[in-house]
Amino acid sequence: MPDAVLFRLGNDKALERFRTEYVIGERFLNVVEENPSYDVVQETAVNREQYFAFYGLYAMTGEGDGVEILLADDKKIYRVDTTDAFPISNRFLDIAGVNFETDGINLNAETKRSLLSLNFNKTMSRSNCDFCLKQCLKEDPDCSRRFLEPFERIQQIPQDHIDGFLDTLCYFYPDYIGDFFKLFFPVCKSSARHI
To answer: Nearest to residue 169, comparing CAs of 117, 100, 97?
Structure first.
């Protein structure tokens, strides 16, 4: 994925230009081809080995809107647009922390209740992962190891690392978004062991 850096603006002059005191900076990608074919990736990309790992990550996180891969002029492929990854979507994030009541229902309280009561039993559907892997095997019969790499890597993420990025996440979202991921990641790591 493209590198991103989080900046905290420290002076009033900078704050005049932005809506919040935090700004994300990303390196601009000069895109050569959107959604390059597998053959183009194999011929061109210096990080071609990540191609099937992108699909493994897609299957693992339950993302529903497809794998978006770009080929940039640095001859690398990049995975972009993962906003609908994990069993949480913009539908929840857009109203998180907004104390607005409609028809006697507080949207913030309802969002918190909905997220923290989600059933994670279907996290990382084996049938979805199997289907995605079968599609990849059509492209390359030797892709299994690369496809399964994200399943192995998520198990290696230490809890203190997860806690660290959830602390940062909760600068921007209510604490219950972090609480959601504290429930989700152990289930995700456990499910990955059984795929």
So the answer is: 97
